[in-house]
Amino acid sequence: MDVAAERIDRLHDLARAAAADGEDDRARYYVRLARRVAERNRLELPRTFRRFTCDSCDAYLRPGTNARVRLQDGHVVVTCDCGSHARYPYDG
Amino acid sequence: MALTPETLPRHELNGLPVRVVDSDDDGRVGLEGRVVIETTNTLSIEVRTDGESRVVTVPKSGSTFEFAITDEAADSTKESGTTSKLADTQPGGTERSAPSDSAGEGVAYVTVDGSRLLSRPARRTETNGDSPWQ
């Protein structure tokens, strides 16, 4: 794993810790920086990172705190406090 | 490539424990805390003193920082293969990352001249030259 991928991992952890401490803006800064590093190095963001961040406002999502997670027919809908929805499918 | 004293100037600085060893401004010498925000020219350090925390912005140029690297990174201080590559990517910066005085087990202190870190946070990791689109 090269430096860029590790940076993204560390930024993911930092964003999660900052969100847990209620430092929403700082978490957002880490999420944006991780996105920027991935973009500059042409890396795919880890799936957990994509599932736990808001595409439109870059917030780190904590289900129950600033995100709603609802199961619909065949897909999950994650609603951020900013109002944007993210959907992904599930089997079963 | 883990976070080693050699890779530190290219690696993520946010979250690392840091101490300001030397600064143009005497008031900033000795500040100790964690890096919380990095910009092109500054590091913001969160200093915790008995319960309350404050964030101090320290300019990179004119300061010398000492980062503490814990756990797995410390044992691989010997592999210096990346040093020459670092010198290529950031000419002008003085290589001062001396893996000096490892105090105790698993902690390495890396002293870095702030001018070596002058770069946009996301740009610092890249190894290519000025034009990455080739």
UniProtKB/TrEMBL annotation, chain A:
UniProt keyword terms in alphabetical order: Cytoplasm, Endonuclease, Hydrolase, Metal-binding, Nuclease, tRNA processing, Zinc
Record field: catalytic activity: Endonucleolytic cleavage of RNA, removing 5'-extranucleotides from tRNA precursor
Cofactors required: Zn(2+)
Enzyme class: hydrolase
Binding site for Zn(2+): 54, 57, 80, 82
Primary localisation category: cytoplasm
GO biological process, one term: tRNA 5'-leader removal
Coiled coil region boundaries: none
GO molecular function: ribonuclease P activity; zinc ion binding
Enzyme Commission code(s) on record: 3.1.26.5
Matches recorded under InterPro entries: RNP4, Rpr2/Snm1/Rpp21
Cofactor stoichiometry and binding remark: Binds 1 zinc ion per subunit.
Compartments where located: Cytoplasm
Highest taxon in the source lineage: Archaea
Gene Ontology, cellular component aspect: cytoplasm; ribonuclease P complex
Subunit structure as annotated in this protein's UniProt entry: Consists of a catalytic RNA component and at least 4-5 protein subunits.
Sequence similarity: Belongs to the eukaryotic/archaeal RNase P protein component 4 family.
Protein task: Part of ribonuclease P, a protein complex that generates mature tRNA molecules by cleaving their 5'-ends.
Protein name: Ribonuclease P protein component 4
Taxonomic source organism: Natrialba swarupiae
Gene: rnp4
UniProtKB/TrEMBL annotation, chain B:
SMART domains: POP4
KW Ribosomal protein (keyword) present: no
Entry's Gene Ontology molecular function annotations: ribonuclease P activity; RNA binding
InterPro entries referenced in this protein's UniProt entry, alphabetically: RNase_P/MRP_Rpp29_sf, RNP1, Rof/RNase_P-like, Rpp29/RNP1
Region described as Disordered: 69-134
EC nos: 3.1.26.5
EC top class, as a word: hydrolase
GO cellular component: cytoplasm; ribonuclease P complex
GO biological process: tRNA 5'-leader removal
Subcellular location: Cytoplasm
Catalytic activity: Endonucleolytic cleavage of RNA, removing 5'-extranucleotides from tRNA precursor
Keyword terms of this UniProt record: Cytoplasm, Endonuclease, Hydrolase, Nuclease, tRNA processing
Regions annotated as coiled coil: none
Role: Part of ribonuclease P, a protein complex that generates mature tRNA molecules by cleaving their 5'-ends.
Family classification: Belongs to the eukaryotic/archaeal RNase P protein component 1 family.
HAMAP family on file: RNase_P_1 (MF_00754)
Subunit (UniProt): Consists of a catalytic RNA component and at least 4-5 protein subunits.
Name of the protein in its database record: Ribonuclease P protein component 1
Source species of the chain: Natrialba swarupiae
Gene: rnp1
